[in-house]
Amino acid sequence: MRVLITGITGFVGSHLTEFALERGADVIGALRWRSKTEHIEHLRERVSLVECDLRDVLSVRGLLEQARPDYIIHLAAQSFVAASWNTPSETLWTNAICQMNLFEAMRQLGSSARFLVIGSSEEYGLVHADELPIRETNPLRPLSPYAVSKVTQDLMGWQYFKSYGMHIVRARAFNHTGPRRGETFATSNFAKQIAEMEAGLREPVVHVGDLKPTRDFSDVRDIVGGYWLLLERGTPGEVYNLCSGVEWSIERMLNFLLERSTLSHIEVRQDPARLRPSDVPVLRGSREKIERTLGWYGVIPLEQTLADLLEYWRRRTKSRPQ
Ligand code: A2R
Fold this sequence. Notes:
Bound molecules: ligand A2R
CATH class of the largest domain: Alpha Beta
CATH architecture of the largest domain: 3-Layer(aba) Sandwich
């Protein structure tokens, strides 16, 4: 089994690689010459890495010729909702065009690889109270440039399945976190700030954005298991939510991390720069479809995930040169 993972150097890519290697797969990872490889250093000897900027159609063709994959998990993306407000065209370009280049190269080469499109709960965007928990059939009302880019990827997956009969399965992952999560993401950012305060590197003030939104969080190690299952047994053309079905406010996650800190008092300060032009107030998914049809559900409690995330930042802060 040869699996091509785009975005292998990213947060999810590193966890998915560990998962795939444990299952005996041959992993081929696509990265750019400038990609930071710190998350996959411990795996480097066990994977094949191919340089490719997925925005470049020739480069993508070369990647597929070299990789000859059975499975493709397309994780590479501009993945950060907040950044998409400042770089809307870059976000749309990267997320839509990279995937289109992969699909077109697959068609040109006659590849019959199974392909997993990585969508997002952000696609649902504005959700009314009577629509919770969110099912796959809910209308898509995206509220950010990132969300629009993910709707594009999602519907493009459906179109290529329908038009060309390609084996494409679509995942809509709700929020996920865990060790190695990028520091721009709220949970990881809070944990990093706390670890740095504990190490005496900053004053005991945690800077936050809007704490009121609630989100449906899973552990990344559960999510990558779901992705694998969708490639193995998901129905082509179908879309599946991956979520816990449990809602936590950002504030509750922050408080959980603060309670685990070794410091007795940390001030919480709202930073206007961290607020977004429009944010999704509530996202809670229904995992009924994937649980009923494929038997998937997450097993790692969010408390464990957050504790592991804080430990990750403590370790990184200690090992950082002062
Ligand atoms: O930016 P780099 O060179 O460090 O690599 C990132 C990669 N990537 C690309 N690779 C090739 N060609 C491109 N034009 C390109 N643009 C981005 O995507 C990095 O390895 C990966 C993104 O990693 P993270 O930001 O850590 O995202 P994460 O959380 O792993 O997200 C995975 C998927 C994405 O589709 C998200 O939108 C979704 O899960 O939530």
